[in-house]
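Sorry to interrupt, but I need a hand with the structure work. Leave the record below and I will have a look:
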Amino acid sequence: MLAEGKKAPAFTLPDSDGNKVSLKDFAGKNVVLYFYPKDNTPGCTKEACDFKEALPDFKKIDAVVLGVSPDSQASHRKFSDNYELPFTLLSDEDKKVVEKYGVWQEKNMYGRKYMGVVRTTVIIDETGKIKKIFPKVKVKGHVDEVLKTLSE
């Protein structure tokens, strides 16, 4: 179980170009690891664009934004290109990282139960510890909450 103050689980995932990206690559930086359900859907697109618009503010406080979903590298590349996303999207097709972070859960829509990613953001500090977990994120205003937490 993830908990604030604990070490963040290590991971290595491919980005949209197939490059391997590991959490340890960002040692010494704050990492905003946001998990989202699906590329090119309304809520996920709004969340990604909100992070894009705020990226200069994240850079000012030495924070890196990484998006993670079970979509393929090709899907991420198309999503990133469509919306000119200036941050890295990581592909977790085998769902190992979403499971490790506890965001792969049973969901219920219109009475139908299925497994999926529960929109969650995890802030990891410069030392690799979890500073804050935002479970079941509501997109509107979320990026501002993340920036506020990082600025504290």
Summary: The chain has a mean pLDDT of 95. Residues 100 and 134 are 16 Å apart (CA to CA). Helices lie at 42-60, 73-83, 96-100, 142-151. Strands lie at 12-14, 20-22, 30-35, 63-69, 88-91, 104-109, 112-117, 120-124, 130-134.
